[in-house]
């Protein structure tokens, strides 16, 4: 068994649409969304220690070591597996994804940590057990452990695999951080979108629905609105998650390249644009075994909220 794993990917996600359909008794919002994995993300290195210590060995601006989702994920796994409490790790985190960008960077880092340390420590948790652990860190974490593009309900933890278009995305970072809590706590947020069924959008979820968080984010953070206005000239531009990033899909890589280039000469030095390819599976998926998966890799019916998987 290896004691070091380098360059472990933590891919970004997009929310191709995001509907707020209600609110739980504890105030958390009920969502329906399609999560799309991208081939761009953060990258982490893991070196095993045998003294039970978990350290982050790189600086992450604005995130103290003890509150980093990576460190919290590692400690959570350590606590969950009693005979692994002597197992530790040094973890290097190379951030590529902006914080408060709606790309799920922190959640993806946490998921990569759970998947990789479960493997390196030989902790033996299966996919479902790791997803349940991940949910304690954030609503997006189970999706990254699930490892496939997914229709999500609840707060994001009820997942069903969904087929999405193979395409290129241009992601535009407007240069602001949007705190998720600020959007969900807004009195202007609409919370009554009609629930949809997975069969409503079998072919083209890039064009389906809307992002209910977008109007509030645009109002509170005008740079989000400006970025959307600019990107809309090239297609159906949307915000991902609670923002701040906005995105647009392209069938051809050269079209995505042209938009990335155009974004660099708009007189918005704070903008950062890049392209990413849609991917079907999390690159670390092979490190996990799933109890309830059938041979085709789909989740079994009882976890799929009764919907038919595309
Ligand atoms: C909106 C989404 C969509 O994928 O992603 P991001 O844009 O953050 O990437 C997620 O639901 C983000 O979920 P999660 O990562 O758990 O959100 P957090 O930042 O922990 O939530 C901050 C606060 O927002 C509120 N919140 C969050 C999620 C939710 N479904 N309902 C809520 O009301 C809660 O008050 C919570 O304390
Ligand atoms: N490893 C991490 N990477 C990014 N953010 C982290 C990390 N650990 C904790 N956080 C906290 O989580 C917040 C949300 O970050 P992130 O998940 O990247 O954005 P979003 O939820 O908008 O997709 C950050 O502002 C930061 O305070």
Automatic annotation (TrEMBL):
Residues 207-267 form the GHMP kinase C-terminal domain. Residues 69-148 form the GHMP kinase N-terminal domain. Its EC number is 2.7.1.148. The active site is at 13, 140. It catalyses: 4-CDP-2-C-methyl-D-erythritol + ATP = 4-CDP-2-C-methyl-D-erythritol 2-phosphate + ADP + H(+). ATP binds at residues 98-108. Catalyzes the phosphorylation of the position 2 hydroxy group of 4-diphosphocytidyl-2C-methyl-D-erythritol. This is 4-diphosphocytidyl-2-C-methyl-D-erythritol kinase. The lineage of its organism: Bacteria, Pseudomonadati, Pseudomonadota, Betaproteobacteria, Burkholderiales. The gene is ispE.
């Amino acid at each position: 068994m290896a004691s070091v794993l380098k360059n472990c990917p933590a891919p970004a996600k997009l929310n191709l649409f995001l509907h707020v359909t209600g609110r739980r008794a504890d105030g958390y919002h009920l969502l329906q969304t399609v999560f799309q994995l991208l081939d761009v993300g953060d990258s982490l290195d893991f070196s095993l220690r045998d003294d039970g210590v978990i350290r982050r060995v790189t600086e992450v601006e604005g995130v103290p070591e003890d509150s980093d989702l990576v460190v919290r994920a590692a400690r959570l796994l350590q606590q969950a597996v009693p005979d692994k409490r002597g197992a530790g790790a040094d973890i290097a985190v190379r951030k590529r994804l902006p914080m408060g960008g709606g790309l799920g960077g922190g959640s993806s880092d946490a998921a990569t940590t759970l998947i990789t340390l479960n493997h390196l420590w030989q902790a033996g948790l299966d996919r479902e057990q790791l997803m349940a652990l991940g949910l304690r860190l954030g609503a997006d974490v189970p999706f990254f452990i699930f490892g496939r593009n997914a229709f999500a309900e609840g707060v994001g933890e009820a997942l069903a695999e969904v087929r999405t278009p193979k395409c290129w995305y241009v992601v535009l970072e407007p240069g602001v951080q949007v705190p998720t809590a600020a959007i969900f706590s807004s009195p202007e947020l609409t919370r009554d979108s009609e629930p949809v069924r997975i069969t409503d959008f079998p072919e083209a979820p890039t064009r389906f629905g809307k992002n209910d968080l977008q109007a509030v984010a645009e109002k509170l953070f005008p740079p989000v609105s400006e970025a959307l206005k600019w990107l809309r000239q090239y297609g159906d531009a949307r915000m991902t998650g609670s923002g701040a990033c906005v995105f647009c899909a392209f069938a051809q890589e050269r079209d995505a390249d042209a938009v990335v280039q155009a974004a660099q000469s708009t007189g918005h030095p704070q903008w950062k644009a890049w392209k990413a390819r849609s991917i079907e599976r999390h690159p670390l998926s092979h490190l996990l075994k799933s109890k309830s998966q059938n041979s085709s890799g789909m989740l079994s019916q009882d976890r799929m909220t009764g919907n038919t998987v595309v």
